[in-house]
Amino acid sequence: QEELVESGGGLVQPGGSLRLSCKTTGGIFNINTMGWYRQAPGKQHELVASITSGGSTNYAGSVKGRFTISRDNAKNTIYLQMNSLKPEDTAVYYCNFVGTLISWGQGTQVTVSS
Length: 114
Hints:
Elements: E1 4-7, E2 10-12, E3 18-24, E4 34-39, E5 46-51, E6 57-59, E7 67-72, E8 77-82, E9 91-97, E10 108-112
Parallel strand pairs: 2-10
Antiparallel strand pairs: 1-3, 3-8, 4-5, 4-9, 5-6, 7-8, 9-10
């Protein structure tokens, strides 16, 4: 069974950067589109970036030009490089498949505040 383990969050000032990582433990990572989601308090999960097995990417308008998603198929890992962070980026960030979700991991908290 696939498991998702996110890491790399923290507290950062506006304008700062963070790099998130998500490692999967199962065997279907390489053939699926993966995504980074975030959930702010009181809100639903929001898909902010996705990447296909071939490396094509897509971004939500709110993060386009600031966030970069990438993947390392050999390591069953995806990454989210977040630059020029804003207070409104504060949320718990999760990875998951796109289309058919599996159980959410524990997520990683990103807090952007001065």
